Amino acid sequence: MLEEFLIQTINGIVVGMILALVASGLTLIFGIMDVVNFAHGELFMLGAYVGVVTLAGTGSFWLALLVATLVVAALGAAIHVTTLRPLLGRDPLNTILVTFGISLVLQNYALWQFGPVARKINEPFTGHFNLFYLEYPWYRLVIALLSAAIIAGLWLFLKYSTYGVWIRATTQDRLMAQAMGIPVPRLLTIVFAIGSGMAAASGVLFGPLVGVNHAMGLDWVLKAFIVVVVGGMGNLVGSIAASIFISLTESYASLWVSPSQAIIVSFVVLILTLLIRPTGLFVPTPK
Amino acid sequence: MTAADHSEALVRVEDIHTYYGKSHILHGVSLEVRRGEIVGLLGRNGVGKSTTLKAIMGLVHPTRGEVLLEGQSLGHLPAHRVARLGIGYVPEDRRIFRLLTVSENLRTGLDGRGVSEARKKELLEMVFDFFPVLAERRNQAGGTLSGGEQQMLAIARAMMLEPKIILLDEPTEGLMPRMVSQIRHIIHVLRREGVAVLLVEQNVPLTLETSERVYFMEKGQVRHQAAASELHADHEVVHKYLGV
User: Residue A241: phi, psi to the nearest 5?
Assistant: First the structure.
């Protein structure tokens, strides 16, 4: 029992870190522009596909990771400039409809371009180590570490760079940020690009575990939304904590029930959060 | 008025009209501030003083009329471009970035303008010299400062833009009387540095004492202007427009 518990702990943290990578892009975008990005899962999926194509062309997983991140970040910037920037200052419902529309377009594009059969991204290395009675793949631990490193990079960027200070200032008070000379429209595009690139990176990293298909974004974006709400909308640290928390709870739950039933646990956490503490579990009580 | 007078104006507001939704807020406001001049803008609550400042800043765009900076129309330039042309804004509720440290608050106006590192240091030393308490608290979150300290930070932050004019909206609101003299001192410092100020205030004695000229607003329009030296707090003009 203790062994299973430890294995599930490691599984929970690995999945939680990937989820945190998806959710931090989502929460960053929500925090600064109040845009609930329904296309986030599709950017994750497109990232995985760009990874598949680059991997097939070059044979390098790491290059595929880099190319997917950059290509999808550029796509995100283009999406922002052409569809979201013109809606600045409108009712949030407009942006919800637009991002939902974009998600449908991207999903059907992927279906048309790549077909319904799932593609495979091979792990960059296949070593295992012994974890009690299991052969545990090293790659899974590497995913967790890489995700943590990317999130740490984001944190350093937000904390120390000029753009980071601008992003935090704009998240707190967009009007005052403009009055301080911060080029807010350009900044929003950059944030959308960063969020998109992070979604793409998680798509490539997670590809080897699940297989790549046009609908893979759906599960993830749903979970990422749960995490963003539970962690406190727009709160980066809260989202990361909530990712780990929810993944661990699901992992532990699957000790007793089947993994598909374990997903119910996330929804229970979501509903309880909304009932008891709608501002989020991992944020200080608002004054 | 001759052409020469026009060129003297640093900021000229010409007959601007603004709407908030369907309500007509400004009904043709005109005023001007000359280089290095301290100008007061008085009037009862809700006559459009704050909206006038927002319109100059480009945070609200007038549907008619225009704002000129050094003779150039600002048109519908977004606020961030207006800020970089040399207009600093200190809003009514100060609106400092509460989760950013004092240093980071100041950085928002320093970075990305192509200012040399040496000049940045100079500007920081200047405001830390004016407001030593900000230097002491530079690594503290803005939200933890007292009201007076936040007001200093809001003004210091605007000064980071090296503005030609600062729009100061009710700087003494909610401050202890002791702090009011501090604000008076700050306005004197700005005057000494050659920064023009357009001051919106409820505190009439402070406004008359620090300003060179005063405009009076009523119902979305400027109704009267006078040299501050001609007025005192119980003057009939003051009484007429402010009911004090």
Answer: -60, -40
The tokens for A244 are 């780990």
From first to last of its 244 residues, chain B has per-residue pLDDT tens of 444 444 479 999 999 999 988 888 999 999 999 999 999 999 988 899 999 999 999 999 999 999 999 999 998 999 999 999 999 999 998 999 999 999 999 999 998 888 999 999 999 999 999 889 999 999 999 999 988 899 999 999 999 999 999 999 999 888 888 888 888 988 998 999 899 999 999 888 899 999 999 999 998 999 888 888 887 766 778 878 887 6
Q: What is the bridge-based pairing of β-strands B165-169 and B72-73? A: unpaired
Sequence-ordered list of residues with C-beta below 8 angstroms from that of A5, at least 6 positions apart, any chain: A252, A255
In chain B, residues with a C-beta closer than 8 Å to the C-beta of A182 are 80, 108, 112
**Which chain B residues are closer than 8 Å to A165 by Cβ?**
100, 104, 107-108, 111
Structure tokens at B133: 């308490």
User: Residue B83 is nearest to which of A162, A169, A179, comparing CB atoms?
Assistant: A179
The alpha-carbon gap from A284 to the nearest alpha carbon of chain B, in Å, equals: 13
Are the C-beta atoms of residues B152 and B133 closer than 8 Å to each other?
yes
Residues of B in contact with A188 (CB under 8 A): none
Partner residues linked to B77 by β-bridges: none
Contacts for A239 with CB less than 8 Å, ≥ 6 apart: A20, A23, A24, A26, A27, A227, A228, A231, A232
Instruction: Judge: A168–B113 Cβ closer than 8 Å, yes or no.
Output: no
Q: What pTM value is reported for the model?
A: 0.89
Helix (H) or strand (E) holding B124: helix B117-130
Nearest CA in chain A to B92: A176
Domains of chain A plus CATH, in order, are 2-276 (1.10.3470)
Count of A–B CB contacts within 8 Å? 71
